[in-house]
Amino acid sequence: MGVRFLKIAVVYFFIAVCLGLVMGIIQDFSYTSVHAHLNLLGWVSMSIFGLIYSIYPSASETKLAKTHFWLHNLGVPIMQGVLFIELLTDNTSLTIGIIIGSIMVVIGVLLFMINILKLKSS
User: Where are the transmembrane segments (predicted)?
Assistant: First the structure.
């Protein structure tokens, strides 16, 4: 699970860096929140999840870890994809997508927290 999180983290990092580059080139920073969330929830958080799961392989083998992985990796693109579309089209009728994606991420992080708190102290 650790390597899976690290691999997807670098994909998010690449996407966020490319978005930042495009915003800089065209001097339009309307998508800064998408750029920041892709960096934080995609690159940084998933890298940390990956490192923690690599350090604690017993935690990475749980159903909690697998569910966390899928909730986070479905929630982030839904949340940020819909936000990007809303910003691009100036249409807020899709906000439910942002809410659904956000809830998926929050539940995933909750499962991660429970999983880590269940680790036995050495």
Answer: 40-57, 69-88, 94-117
